[in-house]
């Protein structure tokens, strides 16, 4: 019988021996880097070791290891960094290597859990995971710079190119993940359809059943919550009016977009009977109002407002990610996300979305620099980018840890409404 990725975890001593020998090399290089103060190499080595011990912990045997060729690919960037001529070259090589680690971790999840991903979703998953790893490294390196007074990340431009490299190579690694699995008969990515978990079973497994809606948890009545939503809409409308009167397209555009978002829950409730309670609607309206007033006046005058709005916005992004995962799990036979992996997936989704957003802002800055045009989005330096990622992560953890019970009714209603409809080629 041919060796498959899943069998390799249990498997052959030669495979485990080669893989662990590679990890020993990683530890030695990481120890030398720690001694010499090379933070990027230390972070890479630590990440590789953490990924390598996942199957050992899960299966309780040191013979549990990734296929040796996957381990070799994962450590190749670290070996290349050793001979790189300068700091910038080492950084580029290692951030490109985030994709190889994302590939290895995705293979582990596929071999050790019940996760099932369609081809396009697997590619997206590896890409997001690579971007999230790159973001984590950049924040940790930035923190080292703040504490030690070093300049491992010399500028925002440098940091952005590192994140771009991690994201693009992640996309390529996702394609490799798909092709790698096709080499093993019977282990293809979509060869074993898994039915989605029923709503009540999912809620029980994820420990999110029996929770009251957000409307009932807030200290004011539902009527007062609806009144607050109207007040926030009027505030955003006033900002929109100011932008139109003063011919300020940036203010007008942002306010119009934020005002439209506040009506989305109402539209979905009335047209599709999606159960957005007053608490959820107020939550969404509050987040977009804070962004609207920040763009209008506060962002340029206060750093703390920006740090407050980012985690709140991240909770909305996490909610969208949760709804998307639940919908695909329920309606695509080839997609299954075990409940235990949902919180981590949401955090990765939000982190990756934040990276994509920062890359978009960086692109706007490049266009503005070459054309002289005023862009609706812009970055404000390395500290701004890194704190954005930090506070996005905080928001992601909040919604993944405590917010899912308040989203379950909405996501269940969405999956019910889409029952029997076309979902990504179904």
Structural account:
The model is unreliable at 1-10, 185-197 and 201-206 (pLDDT under 50). With 426 residues, the chain is an all-alpha fold. The protein folds into two domains: 5-181, no CATH class; 199-417, no CATH class. The radius of gyration is 23 Å and the shape is globular. It has helices at 5-10, 13-36, 39-59, 68-82, 87-112, 119-148, 156-181, 199-205, 214-217, 222-245, 249-262, 264-272, 278-298, 303-331, 342-371, 382-417. Helix content is 76%, strand content 0%. The longest helix is centred in the last third of the chain and has 36 residues, at 382-417. InterPro entries: YjdF-like (IPR014509). The chain crosses the membrane at residues 12-30, 42-61, 68-88, 94-113, 120-139, 159-177, 280-299, 311-328, 340-357. This is Membrane protein (DUF2238).
Which stretches of 5+ consecutive residues score pLDDT under 50? 1-10, 185-197, 201-206
Overall shape: globular
Instruction: Please give the count of helices.
Output: 16
- Total strands: the figure is 0
Mean pLDDT over the residues: 82
What characterizes the major β-sheet?
none
Q: Order of SSEs, N→C?
A: HHHHHHHHHHHHHHHH
Radius of gyration: 23 Å
The tally of structural domains comes to 2
Distance between the termini: 34 Å
Helix content: over 70%
- Structure class: mainly alpha
| Strand coverage percent | under 5%
Protein name: Membrane protein (DUF2238)
Organism: Natronococcus occultus SP4
InterPro entries: YjdF-like
Keywords: Membrane, Transmembrane, Transmembrane helix
